[in-house]
C-alpha cells in the first residue's frame, strides 16, 4: 500500500481536534456511515484549522512552528495507528514499512502569509545546508526509516547511497518477483538485512 500524507506541508493547516484515542480496529481514526454525525470519518467535526497539540501551546515558538510541530505529531499518531492495526490483524511481522519523504524541509509560509515555520528551529536539515527546491544536500537528502520485524535488525544503520527508484527493485525482491528490466534501481534488502556492506557495488 502506498500512503501519501500531505502533512506537514506549506499551508500549515492543522486539524479540527486531537487524534482519536487508541488505534487499530477499535480506536484511532475510524470510517463512519454517511448518516453519522461525522460523515465518512470520526474526526469530521470541530473547528477547521484550530487544533494545536497541548504539548506545544505554551512553547516559546511562533504560531507557524507550533502548527508545524502539531502536524508532525499528527503524522506520528497516524503511523502508530497503522502499526497497531497490523498487530491486531496479526500481520505485523510480515509487513515491511518504509517511512520516507520526497525532499528536505521547507521554509513554510501559512495561508495568507500570516505565519511561517522556521526549518532551523527543529534542526530539520541536521548538519546539512539547504531546504526544499535547493540542490544542496539539505534539500535532497532525506532520512528513511525501515521496519520489518525479525528481518531487519533493530537499530541498524544503512549508509549505502540510494534513491526512490530503488524501492521498486526492493519490493520485487521482498515479493520474490523478478526485478523489471526497465528500472536501474537495485534492491536494498542486502543492506537492510546487513548481509552486504554499505559500499557501492558494480550493480550501480
UniProtKB/TrEMBL annotation:
SUPFAM superfamilies: Alkaline phosphatase-like. It comes from Arenibacter certesii. This is Sulfatase N-terminal domain-containing protein. The lineage of its organism: Bacteria, Pseudomonadati, Bacteroidota, Flavobacteriia, Flavobacteriales. It holds the Pfam family Sulfatase. Residues 67-175 form the Sulfatase N-terminal domain. InterPro entries: Alkaline_phosphatase_core_sf, GAG_Ulvan_Degrading_Sulfatases, Sulfatase_N.
